[in-house]
Amino acid sequence: MTINSLTAATREQVDSFLKQALAQLTLNPRLNQAMQHGVLMGGKRIRPYLLVTVADICGANKNDALQAAAAVELIHAYSLIHDDLPAMDDDDLRRGQPTCHIAYDEATAILAGDALQTLAFEVLTENRMEQLPSERQLQLVQVLAKASGARGMCAGQAIDLQATAKIVTEDALEQMHLSKTGALITAAATMGVLCGNDNAQQWREKFEQFAHYLGLAFQVQDDILDVTGNTEALGKPQGSDTASEKSTYVRLLGIEGAQQRLQNLHHKALQSLSDIPYNTDRLEQFSDLLLKRDH
Amino acid sequence: MTINSLTAATREQVDSFLKQALAQLTLNPRLNQAMQHGVLMGGKRIRPYLLVTVADICGANKNDALQAAAAVELIHAYSLIHDDLPAMDDDDLRRGQPTCHIAYDEATAILAGDALQTLAFEVLTENRMEQLPSERQLQLVQVLAKASGARGMCAGQAIDLQATAKIVTEDALEQMHLSKTGALITAAATMGVLCGNDNAQQWREKFEQFAHYLGLAFQVQDDILDVTGNTEALGKPQGSDTASEKSTYVRLLGIEGAQQRLQNLHHKALQSLSDIPYNTDRLEQFSDLLLKRDH
């Protein structure tokens, strides 16, 4: 079992939902194609898998959870398109394929990212979420917005850009990752709980804690793979973080130090699960496979 | 009385709300400053004024309306930052001041736009909207999302970019404006109604019709002013649309033809108001001043 085979079924369901949502946006075909390129070019769908699994554990309706999962993935997809732009990380390749501004053009890539962000919020307002009261749907919008904007992901990317070619402390690096990627991963867990039944709401904080540590561990593993992985499996040039002088855990702690940190975070993630009185085996398996992946 | 003096009080209230909302986003100071630059550099606040006035006519709570108005203005502000980027319209100057990517840098401008869009949706979920049931708040999110994304504003900007240096038909030009600027102006009216009492909901379509014609007329006037106005009053180089070979009403219809079209649209806007059994004098005055402005 690999992380890709674990998430395969959820990936298929979320992708099918995303295809449907995108198929309705016919006003400008080129924009639509660029959006599809950004969303449907693959990826492990970690955030949707986390959301759907937490939701299922919390007794959620399957369709509600898929809809929320699609929204989170749309935010993630938009952020990748914008992060790859020449003015940002200037990446030509992602998952072995040309990035959006290479396959289309820069203006279209900016607009595709913009429109994908909008679509994320639109998706959360759809009537198909009939099992959820409006207050909960509104909370989904709020949690996703707080994680994505200047309190979360966007601020993280800004901090990351400003930190390039600077030596930062481990605390500063952690703070950057917590906002850049951690906030959205944690939001996926929160949204999973919000899709669940009333009883499950009391465990929200524990699920969030799990996601918090998992997100950080995921990032440490990413930094390790950038050094130890190979270009083909990663879908991006190996060592690209080192080449661009980004701050990484490996640079700060060395390979062994980073591996130690990874184990430590993984352990804390599993500990958070142990406080929850539901069967969380699937989340345990998920974090094991995610943190032992080789690309 | 000018359009600027008419909207002054609303502008102040919305700006004060926006300042408060932005003051909370302290995670990355540079990103925060760029966001403030984009939002608080002035502007007529046409969309907030329209929303607040429609809301007031429809018996809305003042704070609910201001909050919704702030959300619409945040979307507008983000779109201006992104439209000004080098890859898009490449404008250095807006309202007589350096655009966001000139005052900061391109990456920060992209992120500031992204985070302002997110903030728009966050603002609509705040608890301060205590007079509105959650269903209505969710409808506000939905209307704003549909108007801003690949069904509306983003598609309009994509169409606009693709049409540069091409001769298009008047229908195609109208279609472009309806999505690029019309959708958000109409959304402002819809959201005003949604903030209102239950009774007012039946007049939603009439208010939307008014905004639809007003938005188109506003665009025709904009094209006319680009030819007849002066750089100082406009805050951007006079003739900049002609220089960039954009399709305009003046290019298609000539100055007189465009002025005729403006009168015609203005008339249709006022006609839509006449069907509404409330006192809509303020909207009449608003459209008169807006369409007779000289910058």
UniProtKB/TrEMBL annotation, chains A, B:
> Which cofactors does it use?
Mg(2+)
- Tell me the Gene Ontology biological-process terms attached to this UniProt entry: phospholipid biosynthetic process; terpenoid biosynthetic process
MF term (GO), any: metal ion binding
SUPFAM superfamilies to which the protein is assigned, alphabetical: Terpenoid synthases (SSF48576)
One cellular component term (GO) for this entry is:
cytoplasm
UniProt keyword list: Isoprene biosynthesis, Magnesium, Metal-binding, Transferase
Check the record and name the InterPro entries matching this protein. Isoprenoid_synthase_dom_sf, Polyprenyl_synt, Polyprenyl_synt_CS, Prenyl_diphosphate_synthase
Q: Write out the similarity annotation.
A: Belongs to the FPP/GGPP synthase family.
Name assigned to this protein = Geranylgeranyl pyrophosphate synthase
From the broadest rank down, the organism's phylogenetic lineage runs: Bacteria, Pseudomonadati, Pseudomonadota, Gammaproteobacteria, Alteromonadales
